[in-house]
Specification:
Number of strands: 4
InterPro entries: HET
Helix content: 25-40%
Number of domains: 1
Largest sheet: 4 strands, parallel
Mean pLDDT: 76
Shape: globular
Radius of gyration: 16 Å
Number of helices: 8
Low-confidence stretches: none
Order of helices and strands: EHHEHHHEHHHE
Protein name: Heterokaryon incompatibility domain-containing protein
Strand content: 5-15%
Oligomer: single chain
Strand order of the largest sheet: 2-1-3-4
Organism: Paraphaeosphaeria sporulosa
Pfam families: HET
Length: 163
């Protein structure tokens, strides 16, 4: 994805463990996911990111558990975390995804995928100005700082909204 995409999209940067993720794209679910996604299967963090993206008027949200084929049901716990063939195809697109996204939604505050992050900001007034934040300082006491993958996502991003 070296060229700009045709449709605007956001990306989600978040931390998850395979044991807490209810719903992913697997080889057996791939075709049905192209038609419809079951809203009630997504945890609160993922639902918040989808709603936030829709409220911005952006038609698409990219997040790895859905957009990269994950471990198939047949593999069980012994199988790879991701489908190796799909990973080989998708991994080379990562820099472009984060560079061309309208915004990266960095869900830093939820300690698990079952926690909402939008409810944390509804009672505060909007900021009177936007300011630039230091990535290292902003993420230092969050799971993002201890996981290389999520930290890389933020380094590659051009516009980040922290929650």
């Amino acid at each position: 994805m070296d060229h700009a995409p045709r449709e605007p999209f956001d990306v989600l940067s978040y931390c998850w463990r395979s044991t807490e993720l209810n719903y992913t794209t697997t080889v057996s679910r791939l075709e049905s996911h192209k038609q419809q996604l079951p809203w009630d299967q997504f945890q609160k963090t993922l639902q918040d990111a989808i709603e936030f993206t829709q409220n911005l008027g952006i038609p698409y949200l990219w997040f790895d558990a859905l957009c990269i084929v994950q471990r198939s049901e047949q593999d069980g716990d012994a199988g790879p975390v991701v489908d190796k063939a799909d990973w080989a195809e998708e991994a080379v697109k990562m820099a472009g995804l984060y560079r061309h996204a309208c915004v990266t939604i960095a869900a830093l505050s939820p300690r698990s995928l079952n926690e909402e992050f939008l409810e944390l900001i509804t009672e505060t007034s909007p900021p009177s100005s936007l300011e630039r934040h230091d990535l290292f300082e902003t993420t230092q006491n969050t799971p993002h700082a201890s996981r290389g993958w999520t930290f890389l996502e933020l380094l590659l991003s051009t516009r980040i909204l922290y929650f």
